[in-house]
Amino acid sequence: MSNPYQQPDPYNGSGYGQQPQQPGYGYPQQPPQQPNYGYPQAPQQPQGYGYPQAPQQPYPPVYPAAPPQNTLATASAAIGVVSILTVCFYGWLLALVGVGLGIGALNKSSQLGGQGRGVAIGGIVINTLALLIGVAVVVLYVVIPK
C-alpha cells in the first residue's frame, strides 16, 4: 500500500545528491511565439561566438554647425600688417582700405553677436598706426631739405 502523505520525488527517482535527468539529444524546442499585433517581426539573428555586437545606429551623430566667421575683421588685420611693412612704398593707401574694412567688420560683429569684434578693433588700430607712420614719412620727406 502506498503512503498518501508522500510528496513527489524532485530528482525523479535518481537518488539523493544526484542531478535530475537531462532531456535527450535532438532538436531544441522552439520558444512559444509572441503575438505581433499586426506589426512586422524583426528578423532574428543567430547568436555567434565571441563578444556581442553593439546595436547599429541608423544615422551618424549630428554635430553643431560652426559659428559664422567675420572675414572682414581678418582681412582688416592682415592688410594692417602688410601696410605697416610697406609704409615706405605707398602702404598708407592700403591702411586707408584696412581702416574701412575694420569699421565694416565692427558693424558686422554686432550682427554676429560679437564674433570677431576684437580682431576688427585690432585691425583698425594697426591700420591707423600705419596711416600715421605714412603721414609722418611724407611730412619728413617734404620738410627735410635735399
Automatic annotation (TrEMBL):
Low complexity: compositionally biased ranges: 10-28, 35-54
| Highest taxon of source | Bacteria
Bias (Pro residues) ranges = 55-65
Coiled coil where? none
Q: Which UniProt keywords apply?
A: Membrane, Transmembrane, Transmembrane helix
Region annotation (Disordered) maps to 1-65
Q: Where are the transmembrane segments?
A: 77-106, 118-144
Keyword Manganese in annotation:
no
Q: What is this protein called?
A: DUF4190 domain-containing protein
What lineage does UniProt assign to this protein's organism?
Bacteria, Bacillati, Actinomycetota, Actinomycetes, Kitasatosporales
